[in-house]
Structure formats: C-alpha cells, structure tokens
Amino acid sequence: MIGTFQELESHLASHLQNITDLPLSSLPHPFELENVKEASEAIAQAIQKQQKILIVGDYDADGILSTALMVTFFKQIGIKHFSYTIPHRFNDGYGISIPILERNEADLIITVDNGITATDVAQYCKAQGKTLIITDHHSPKEILPDALIINPQVSGFAQKEICGCFVAWYVCAGLKATLQSSIDLTPFLEFVSIATISDIMPLTALNRTILKKGLSLLNAPHFAFAQLLLQKYGSIDEECIGFFIAPLLNASGRMADTQKALDFLFSQDIHEAQKHFEALQALNTQRKEIQKALFIEAKHHLHETRECVVAYGTGWHEGVLGILANQLLEQYQKPTFVLTQKDGSYKGSGRGVDGVDLPASLNALQDICNFGGHCKAVGLEVFDIEQFCTRFQAIRSQHPLKQGCDPVFHISPTLLTAELLALLQRYGPYGEGYPQPSFTLPPLPILEQKLIGKEKNHTQFTLQTPKPIKVLAFFQTLDTLDFAQARFYAKRDAYQPIVLHLKP
C-alpha cells in the first residue's frame, strides 16, 4: 500500500511520464501534412483572382469549431469573397453534397471535418470546373475523391489521429505561410483544444501538447466566447470541456441548425456571447429532455450480446442518437449502436471502447450498411438490422476485448485529500489514451448509502476515513462493495475538497 505522497508521486512519475510534452516550436511544419502547400497556393490564387470561396463544415462540435476557426482566420487576413455553410442534420444529412453546392455558388470549395468519402461531389466539381479541397480526419474508403485531399489518415503525416479542427488549423497555418501573413495562430488553439476533447482524440504527444497549450489559453482567453466560458465555469480543464462545453456546442447541431453555436463562437464581446450562450443552454435543456425519454424507450428495445449492444426503434430523434449511444456505452462498457428506422433503413450512431476499431470492424458489413467516422465513433445506415446484429457480434467474437492497462494504485485512505488532486493535476491533462489513474482502497466501513438522480439509477455513499469521503457510483446500485475489485477516481467537487467516483 502506498502511504505517502512522496511514494505516490514516484509511482505516478514512472507510469505517466511515457509521453513527452513538445514545445509548440517543434510541431510539424504545415507543409509536412500532404497537400497543405498545394491547397494554400490554390486558395491564395483564388484570393488574388477574387474568386468565390465556400467553406463546408459539419454539424458536430469538431465540425462547428473547424468552421469557426477557418472563418475567423479568413476574416482576420482580409479575405472578402468567401462564405460558409454547414449541412442541416435533418434536411441535408452528413457532409458535403451536390445539392449544397447547387445552393451555394463558389469557384473553390474547402471542406472541414468531412468530405473524405465524397467521390460524387469531386466528380461534380471536376465537371463544373470548380476546385475542391477536402480537409478531413475520418477514415478513408478504398476509393478516394479526385480532389486535393488533406487528411492525416491518407498521408504519411507524423500523427494520424488528430481532430478535424487541428487539420483546419494546419491549413490556415499553411495559408499564413504562403501569404506571408503576420497573424498569430496560437490563440486559435482555443478552438483546437476544445475539438480535441470533444471528438475524443487520443492524447498522443502532439495532441497532448496542443491540449495543454489550449487549456492555458482558455484560462486566459483571447476570444470572447472563451472569456464567457471562463466566467461561467471558473476554470476550464479537460473535464469541463467534455462534460459542459462540448455538449453545449453539439446541442445546436443536434436540435436545430448549427448557426446558434457559430454565432456564439463568432461573438465580438462577452455580452453578445452571453446572449448566444443562453440560446445554446435552452437547446441543450431540450436535448436532455428528449434524451431522457429516449433512454427509457431504448432500454426496452435493446439487444445485448457478449460483444455489443444494439438499440433500435422507430421515430427516434436523430439528433440525440450519438449521445444516447455514449450513455449506454457508459453503462454496458461494450460497443454500442443506437439506430432509428427512416425511409426503409436504420440510421444512427455507434460508439466504441478501447481495443475496438469500429470502421475496421464494419468493413466486412459494407454489403448491409454504409458508415463513416473514426476509431470510437461512427455514423451509419443499416439496411438489414437483424443481419447487422448477428454479423457484428460474430466479427467481434473473433477478436475479444483485451483488458485495459489503465494505471491503478493501492493507496492509504489518508491520501484522500485535496493534495491528491493537486498531484494528479501536475500530470494532466488526461483523456483518450492517457487516462487518469484510478485507486484501490483497503476495506472501509460505509457510513450511509442512497440512490440519487431523477431515475434513482446512481448511488451515493460515504466511506469512513479520517475525513469521511463521498463516493458517487453512476449507473450502479450497490448492495455490497467489493473493495478487492473497486476502482476509484479522485475528482473535484464544488462543496468538498475531494470526491471519489466508482469506476463502472
């Protein structure tokens, strides 16, 4: 058992310092990302010729932030002949499409966070004499669009798993170099850091470096929207982004169009940001109400096997299926799909766990489904739901999940103080691929226990320690607690120095 903070710090250092933080000056040059130089020159030429440029984004947080970043940069460098659009989730569906281009006149089109499967759009642009630049980070299919493609998944870039907003940042950095602009792109990492957490990117050395810098910027922000967020939340860390900011931005694309989120990100002062923040809050409240009702219904239409969970129904709100899949994933800890029947097929979202590459698993099912996304999150359309359930289960059973290797430390209850949080913070930020350490404890008396939450599906109890500690167990009801198996996370709390979360 680890009994002192000195011992614990020694253990943390040996387990967590496997990722070296990089200085920003050591980031790969923009032109190391394939086609950034060519795309920058094409954009510069379009600017010189005063051609019309169109930016086409995506309706999730990463796509919204990517759009906002590029639009803001274009405004700052003085580009006049450009516009932007984001597909409407319910009217347009995912990604750039020919109807979108028919509605928006442009000579040069730039996608952000989408487009890697848009072969039909590329053919249309060729026929119309338009230049198409695809910036994306999602997994490509076998046939690539005939366009200028900037995607770390396609090229030999040093880091393949970066968010769409980071790709957009690199394109802007390339354009800055081409135009010899003096604009500082560092503050734009406020957008990128939020997108990195929102899109669950693995915290490799590159992503972690960007996130650490972005978090420091968000706590001394440049942009008005970030100033308002700091005012609302007091401080901004990776958990604040994941639990509060990302859902707020996503609510716009889930419940309506994305303009409310974009208006928030484009705010010129904190008063304007407050107005748009309130609009997003209203949408997020609406989203929560719909999600709550659908969660109950989905539990009645849920098909669970040893390898996956599939919930499907009719008339379910498409905007909450992804977050509903996340909610079920938290409870069942296995790949989860939530789909609704529409126009003869089932459309929805899938969410994965460590050790499962969803696009790779779905490749063998291309005869019965269309899909796109990245390792842990996909959007998909299924044409035979029964076959899908059976065959996905069979595929996953051939590749059973490996047990995770998250760092776990057996500690004395005397270490459960605010000093523990301060120590953990020194090794953060944490996230995908770089998880916060969990702890085991010796058997301790439980002083009180009660069910909490509107659905009474969470448990709160208190452990008898030198200073009694509150523990929250989400989606768990406990008759007894097996301390040999229990894993705890130390978290911040508004009313106490420290609170523990019990790992599902």
TrEMBL record:
<dbReference type="InterPro" id="IPR001667">
    <property type="entry name" value="DDH_dom"/>
</dbReference>
<feature type="domain" description="DDH">
    <location>
        <begin position="52"/>
        <end position="176"/>
    </location>
</feature>
<dbReference type="Pfam" id="PF01368">
    <property type="entry name" value="DHH"/>
</dbReference>
<dbReference type="GO" id="GO:0006281">
    <property type="term" value="P:DNA repair"/>
</dbReference>
<dbReference type="Pfam" id="PF17768">
    <property type="entry name" value="RecJ_OB"/>
</dbReference>
<dbReference type="GO" id="GO:0006310">
    <property type="term" value="P:DNA recombination"/>
</dbReference>
<dbReference type="InterPro" id="IPR051673">
    <property type="entry name" value="SSDNA_exonuclease_RecJ"/>
</dbReference>
<dbReference type="InterPro" id="IPR041122">
    <property type="entry name" value="RecJ_OB"/>
</dbReference>
<keyword id="KW-0378">Hydrolase</keyword>
<dbReference type="Pfam" id="PF02272">
    <property type="entry name" value="DHHA1"/>
</dbReference>
<dbReference type="InterPro" id="IPR004610">
    <property type="entry name" value="RecJ"/>
</dbReference>
<dbReference type="GO" id="GO:0008409">
    <property type="term" value="F:5'-3' exonuclease activity"/>
</dbReference>
<keyword id="KW-0269">Exonuclease</keyword>
<feature type="domain" description="RecJ OB">
    <location>
        <begin position="411"/>
        <end position="477"/>
    </location>
</feature>
<dbReference type="InterPro" id="IPR038763">
    <property type="entry name" value="DHH_sf"/>
</dbReference>
<feature type="domain" description="DHHA1">
    <location>
        <begin position="308"/>
        <end position="387"/>
    </location>
</feature>
<protein>
    <recommendedName>
        <fullName>Single-stranded-DNA-specific exonuclease RecJ</fullName>
    </recommendedName>
</protein>
<dbReference type="InterPro" id="IPR003156">
    <property type="entry name" value="DHHA1_dom"/>
</dbReference>
<dbReference type="GO" id="GO:0003676">
    <property type="term" value="F:nucleic acid binding"/>
</dbReference>
<comment type="similarity">
    <text>Belongs to the RecJ family.</text>
</comment>
<keyword id="KW-0540">Nuclease</keyword>
